[in-house]
Structure prediction request, 73 residues.
Amino acid sequence: MKTEAIAAAAQAGDLEFVRLLLAYGADPKGVGRNGSTAVLMSAALPAVPEILETILAGHPDVNARDEKGHTAL
Prediction:
């Protein structure tokens, strides 16, 4: 649930909630329930630099792909 929450917070552009979830053990390397949408991909959608920096500090797989083969880039 923490992974889904941090992905949603990142996608919503809520930096403070992203930081709070990380402090409570959310995994910046995590994937969603369907196993395809990485937290980094959710963070890339609103393209808020501070959120991307925060997620990238957790060293997620920048080459992770979704079910359609797309990466966060």
